[in-house]
Amino acid sequence: MKEFDRIIGYSAEKKELEQIADCLRNSDVYKKLGVNAPGGLLLYGEPGVGKTLMSDCLIKASGRKAFVCRKNKPNGEFINEITKTFEQAKENAPSVVFLDDMDKFANEDERHRDAEEYVTVQSCIDEIKGKDVFVLATVNDIQRLPRSLTRAGRFDRRLEINAPRGADALEIISHYLDGKSLAENIDKQYIARLMEGDSCAKLETLINEAGVYASFDRADKITMEHFMRAYLRSTYGRDINDDDDDDDDYCNSKSEGKKMIDDTVWHEAGHATVSEVIYPGSVTLVSVTGVSSGKSGLTSYSNINSILPLDYSKFRAVGSLAGAAAIEQRVGVPGNGASRDFDQAFDMVRDMIEDDCICGFHLHGSPYRNSENLNSSIEKATAAKIEEYYRKAKEILSLNSEFFEKIARALAEKKLLTAPEIQAIRSECNIERRYMKEETYGSFIADRRRSDRRRNRILSPDR
Ligand SMILES: Nc1ncnc2c1ncn2[C@@H]1O[C@H](COP(=O)(O)OP(=O)(O)OP(=O)(O)O)[C@@H](O)[C@H]1O
Ligand SMILES: [Mg+2]
């Protein structure tokens, strides 16, 4: 149906919406078989993934008149508004009631699932039953709603809308780049990887922002550099660029500023080197842009679908510790500014010990086995694992010092390295993984084999 052309990608979701639109538009066909159209549809998912857009397309494709209700009035008046919307829809049946952002209807009382607004919606839905009024709603957080409201019979269908991934993300990026004047270095595949997990709204906005930077520069074309500037702006909440490095406001002296940049370069190069050695292609971006004006460095990772959760936690824990390990490698003592990395590594390792029992079942954590003794044993085991992983990070760095230094030098020069640039450096270096596989990463590989076996059993139940 052409009404759905505005939704780029999302073919499975579109198919489902088309089917519902057909039920609503051609209800006679369904009635001939004694079938009713689904009683209602609830679209749920993170902000900006296209729920309102999809609802709009569905309403247009249904050919029905829609009565829209959004929270735009104080509580008392809003209850009347809800009732009025349903009444109008009933008088104009066949029709659609569209409750956009329904989980915000009771936002002054968000923990209270029995808020008056939800009770009102529920009783209105019951009242229009059998009156040919289709109820369509969108929400971010389905848990905020009373279960009685979202049950089948009130909302017969629920559809989860996730952020676009893979081919869908690429299609949306291409759609928003279409018709713009682009430089040859615009790399759509890389943009899709960098923004994996981000909403459609964020993709749309960042591409537009890149165009705003290009226009402000009076450039003929939008370049990858404009896009990266827009990306960093959204990450840090303000525009940062290389000019900031001349700004010493944040530091007391030039030499202090230079040391901070140097340390951040080695720190980020440590994260990138260790992560790339363990899982090639895992790092999407390393940046030290804006460090002299007080911004932290940044290393970001793609979600590696093939890595199972336990493997991924180990990989991220070793990678997190690699920043401090890199500074120790350079100057003999672990650097400052790694406390967030340590917090992250401790959290991940503690989860692995409590949930995955990597140090034995006796340390399995559960609310029923909560004793001081157990807690202190878990803490000791966590600290020991962190030390082991920290040593692994250092070992990887010294085994791959050529790669580590090349990443650091390129980062110092360019301030920002993209995944293709990191891969180009990697391909020039001799990467030591063999030794790691046998010694350093023995347990990682063993775990993967175990998980592979588990996966095979699930895929081929007869074996
Ligand atoms: N599949 C898509 N293809 C192209 N653009 C999309 C797609 N989905 C969403 N967009 C664009 O992203 C922006 C946000 O979409 P929308 O308002 O529908 O999100 P939402 O899920 O309703 O967000 P919220 O939960 O915050 O209300 C809009 O500009 C929309 O056009
Ligand atoms: Mg919306």
Structure, explained:
The chain is α/β, with parallel strands linked by helices and 463 residues long. It has 3 domains: 2-160, P-loop containing nucleotide triphosphate hydrolases (Rossmann fold, 3-Layer(aba) Sandwich); 166-239, Helicase, Ruva Protein, domain 3 (Orthogonal Bundle); 245-459, Methane Monooxygenase Hydroxylase, Chain G, domain 1 (Up-down Bundle), CATH 1.20.58. It is 56% helix and 8% strand. The chain is built from 18 helices and 8 strands. The strands form 2 sheets. A 5-stranded parallel beta sheet has the order 2-3-4-1-5, sandwiched between helices. It has a 3-stranded antiparallel beta sheet with strand order 7-6-8, with helices on both faces. It is globular and about 80 Å long. Mean pLDDT is 85; it is low at 435-463. The structure holds adenosine-5'-triphosphate and magnesium ion. Magnesium ion (MG) binds at residues 51-52, 100-101, 138. The site of magnesium ion (MG) has 5 residues, from helix 3.
